[in-house]
Amino acid sequence: MDKVWEYRIEYKHSDSCESNYHYYNAIDASHALEYQEEMVSYKGWDITTLKIEKKCPYSDKWIDETSLAGISVQ
Description:
This protein has about 70 residues and is an alpha+beta fold. The chain has 1 helix and 4 strands.
């Protein structure tokens, strides 16, 4: 069984100045991004994904995994 990690995805609505976060439990950054894309499609959101980070439970820090999810930084 694969380990599940906590991910946060920083995003920005097209009509907003500030960014927000969604949090997902996933086995890797690509799966977290898939969950985000499913929600975007289901809810009809117009957002831009800015960053994907994994929570390290040992250091209590967020590790940038944006490039591992296959998206480019805006």
